[in-house]
Amino acid sequence: MKPVQIGVIGTGSISSLHLDAYKNNPNAIIYAVCDLNEERARAAAEKYGAEKVYTDYHELLADSGIDAVSICTWNNTHAEISIAAVQAGKHVLVEKPLCRTVEEALQVQRAVEDSGKILQIGFVRRYDANAQMLKSLTESGEFGEIYYAKATAFRRLGNPGGWFADIERSGGGPLIDIGVHVIDLCWYMMGRPKPVSVSANTYRKLGNRSNVEHLSFYKAADYDASKNTVEDMGNALIRFENGASLAVEASFTIHAKDNESFVKLYGDKGGMEIDPEVVIVTEKNNTIINSYPQTDHKGFHFESAFQNEINHFIDNVTNGTKPISPVEDGVEIMKILCGIYESAASGSEVKL
Ligand SMILES: NC(=O)c1ccc[n+]([C@@H]2O[C@H](COP(=O)([O-])OP(=O)(O)OC[C@H]3O[C@@H](n4cnc5c(N)ncnc54)[C@H](O)[C@@H]3O)[C@@H](O)[C@H]2O)c1
After folding, report:
1. Which of helix, strand or coil describes residue 149?
2. pLDDT of 87-124, one tens digit each?
């Protein structure tokens, strides 16, 4: 079997998780890298042994040596690069969020369908071994009908600055950046019900708090705290056609005593907690039982989840199979995210 030749577009902070995982996959070859910042691209090429270095993604996409690309750039470029890539005959793994607007998402979906190429969205939480274990229990009916989920993704201090804090390039703040992970994870576990309405609030009360000392946090490769046009906190209640609902809250900064990460889902036969630690709650013989599955990691494990995501992508490209996080799921999540921002802006519930 011929290994899949990979091009990685965007060699900033998250790209190393993609590159490490491709390097560990015997069916992948890191063939090319591309970044607007040539020095950064060259450093990645050197570290991972890429043959080609580009600063213009169009040139990378014109390279017939490339079978598939990872897109690890700013959110405002995801749609444009994804469309150009599938039109150039490349398979695509695009980082979350798929893009910034529903309109862009639908354009990507059309281009993917017309091209027949694979587009996998980097909803990395789905690829965690515990998430897959719980998904299979969900599908075998362990929890019955899941009718409620709630998720918190609070960074007490963690506005990554740079493009993340620039709404033009990011599309939003913590809701679209880290909220998207837990919204998607809950929605996936709930069986992807159709979202019908959203009621949400966003707040810009604390700024980016770049004044705070003695605590480190995730930063964009080009960290710059001079501009901040995104919310610092937001919450939402999402209703689904089947009557289920999801409550979510996310922050880049908030006066919490620590970071908080909770993902909990409740069904009519049982419940589960995914974050911070996997717990299954059931009732047997008139007794409530909390069980703790024995797996390699108690909670979400970043590196192995990325490895699973990349392995899945390489398998899909090799075998022509459909990703478990396909483009249409990215479109639905964009409907929810855009509904959240629209509801917060209007101060009323939005029908999707
Ligand atoms: N899955 C996850 O857990 C996770 C975590 C962090 C970031 N992300 C996502 O990954 C993407 C990148 O985030 P990051 O933290 O690496 O940002 P970053 O700012 O550290 O890196 C982005 C890189 O993309 C480059 N770039 C931007 N536009 C480009 C273009 N048109 N052509 C070539 N290069 C371009 C920049 O020069 C920069 O080096 C974002 O979409 C973000 O939402 C995902």
Report:
1. strand
2. 999 999 999 999 999 999 999 999 999 999 999 999 99
What is the number of the ligand 1 atom nearest to the C-alpha of 34?
Answer: 33
Ligand 1 centroid to Cα of residue 221, in Å, is 8
Helix (H, G, I), strand (E, B) or coil at 145: coil
Domains of the chain: 4-125+306-325 (3.40.50.720), 126-301+333-351 (3.30.360.10)
Helices (H), 97-237: 102-115, 129-139, 167-170, 174, 180-189
Helices and strands in the chain: count of H runs, count of E runs: 11, 15
Model pTM score: 0.98
Q: What tokens does 21 get? A: 């995982």
Atom of ligand 1 nearest to the CA of 14: 16
Residue 82 beta carbon below 6 angstroms from any ligand 1 atom: no
Please write the tens of the pLDDT for every residue from 280-300: 999 999 999 999 999 999 999
Instruction: Could you list the beta-strand ranges (E) of the chain.
Output: 4-9, 28-34, 52-54, 68-71, 91-95, 119-122, 146-154, 195-203, 233-240, 245-251, 260-267, 270-275, 279-284, 287-291, 350-351
Q: What distance in angstroms lies between residue 247's CA and the mean position of ligand 1's atoms?
A: 28
Mutational test site, ligand 1, from 39, 74, 170, max ligand atoms within 8 Å of CB: 74
Q: With the CA atoms of 42, 47, 48 and 50 taken in that order, what torsion angle do they form, in degrees rounded to the nearest 10? A: 30
Written as six digits, the tokens of 26 are 């015997």
Check the CA dihedral 230-234-239-240 and report its sign.
Answer: positive
